[in-house]
Design brief:
It contains 9 helices and no strands. It is mainly alpha-helical and about 180 residues long.
Length: about 180
């Protein structure tokens, strides 16, 4: 997976699997915890299989579905993760987290306008969602780079100010990618 996509996907740490503040039954929590322990122990395929088996028993479980989506995302299975987060955002329209994660996937795929719309929607639901705010900043910075590149192509003679802005944006993006790289 290219470094830029890896950097975008690392917005969610593996610790975020436990970050859901949801009311769940002890059995569901135990299954989620067990899968997370497998995941953290490097047994990723077993963790995914455990969540999938648990979801066969309780297919509407929010925590299990979200955890599976995060795992799929971290495995680079973006299509499967996007499907999970899309379904979660439809089934639980008041939650910002599925929209935030969906935006991360779309940004990684270069769909910046869609990612911005999803982050805007997530922030409308939860205005102080720190990760969505940071992700929106990342998306806007990438959109700025794209706009400066287009401006340079559209200009008859490249303007020094546009070139300087593009270099600044690209420098910030390199720093952003380096900070998120493993």
């Amino acid at each position: 997976m290219p470094l830029r996509i890896q950097a975008l996907l690392q917005v969610l740490s593996t610790g975020s699997l436990a970050a859901l503040l949801l009311i769940v039954t002890p059995t569901q929590a135990a299954e989620s915890d067990a899968a997370q322990k497998l995941w953290m122990g490097g047994k990723r395929a077993e963790a995914v299989a455990m969540l999938e088996e648990s979801l066969r028993k309780t297919p509407n479980d929010l925590e299990l579905r979200f955890a599976l989506g995060v795992m799929r995302m971290e495995l680079g299975e973006l299509s499967a993760a996007a499907t999970l987060f899309t379904q979660l955002s439809q089934d639980f329209p008041d939650l910002a987290d599925p929209l935030n994660n969906l935006a991360v996937i779309h940004a990684a795929q270069g769909q910046l306008d869609l990612a911005q719309a999803e982050l805007t929607q997530a922030l409308a639901l939860q205005p102080a969602h720190a990760q969505a705010l940071e992700n929106l900043g990342d998306v806007l910075l990438r959109q700025a780079e794209r706009a400066y590149q287009r401006a340079l192509k559209a200009q008859v003679a490249p303007q020094a100010s546009t070139q300087a802005k593009l270099k600044l944006a690209q420098g910030l993006l390199r720093q952003l990618d380096a900070a998120k790289a493993p």
